[in-house]
């Protein structure tokens, strides 16, 4: 029940109650939440208040809406260790999820100044710009934009990009990927990426920028990826020196 005399807003109280039913596993991932009407009747609060609580829980990732079907409890967030230099395909397989890729953009063009500098390229050297939506069990997880020199990774095609880029680089081209330097920050994506990721306007994502090098130090890839912050969290083990 909610306490109408409490200084805490009613929507917040309802939010906390729903959260509790999820945390105690009374409601499990995939379970449907009672309808707005049912919740408003059983808690004796307005539908507007119920809607506000649900919207907040959707934005925080506890619930998700399916058009015409209702609101459901989300799965736990994916936890990704930041220590290893892994590919998306490897990350998903390690969790027994089926990795997926949808190619959104594929282009070969002369690198512009910034990217040329990052990838240590000569003037006008050709690069790939590849934008892919990455999926786990068909659920959109991240939008990834990669830049790679064509001379280093020849023969890349949309077909190859439907599966694993790293498998192609390592198994077909027999290159050895060495190390990467990576930053993570919060960001808001544009309307197009919001749609790809199925997130609401204004919901933050985790923006990862990674520069990856071959074992011999040659720059291989610059990538900017927006991961759904409501579905993903990063973990790092640290030691006191
Ligand atoms: C990861 C990498 C990305 C790489 C991709 C290859 C980050 C931020 N990005 O998503 O740089 O291109 O893996 O994945 O970690 P694939 O082998 O499954 O195509």
From TrEMBL:
The keyword Secreted does not apply. This is GntR family transcriptional regulator. Coiled coil: none annotated. The keyword Hydrolase does not apply. Keywords: DNA-binding, Transcription, Transcription regulation. Residues 8-76 form the HTH gntR-type domain. InterPro entries: Bact_HTH_transcr_reg, Chorismate_lyase_/UTRA_dom_sf, Tscrpt_reg_HTH_GntR, UTRA, WH-like_DNA-bd_sf, WH_DNA-bd_sf.
């Amino acid at each position: 029940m909610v306490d109408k005399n409490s200084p805490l807003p009613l929507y917040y109280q309802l939010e906390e109650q729903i959260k509790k039913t999820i945390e105690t596993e009374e409601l499990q991932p995939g379970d449907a939440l009672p309808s707005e009407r049912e919740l408003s009747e059983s808690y004796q609060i307005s539908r507007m208040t119920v809607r506000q609580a649900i919207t907040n829980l959707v934005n925080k990732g506890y619930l998700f809406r399916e058009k015409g079907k209702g609101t459901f409890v989300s799965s736990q967030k994916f936890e990704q260790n930041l220590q290893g230099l892994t590919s998306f395909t490897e990350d998903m397989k390690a969790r027994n999820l089926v990795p997926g890729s949808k190619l959104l953009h594929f282009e070969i063009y002369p690198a512009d100044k910034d990217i040329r500098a990052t990838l240590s390229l000569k003037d006008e050297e050709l690069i790939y710009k590849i934008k892919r939506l990455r999926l786990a069990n068909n659920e959109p997880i991240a939008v990834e934009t990669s830049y790679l020199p064509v001379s280093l990774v020849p023969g890349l095609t949309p077909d190859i990009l439907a599966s694993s880029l790293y498998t192609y680089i390592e198994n077909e081209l027999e290159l050895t990927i060495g190390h990467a330097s990576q930053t993570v920050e919060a960001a808001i994506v544009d309307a197009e990426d919001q749609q790809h990721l199925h997130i609401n306007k204004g919901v933050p994502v985790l923006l990862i920028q990674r520069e990856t090098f071959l074992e011999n130090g040659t720059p291989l890839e610059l990538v900017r990826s927006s991961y759904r912050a409501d579905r993903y969290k990063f973990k790092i083990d640290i030691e006191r020196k």
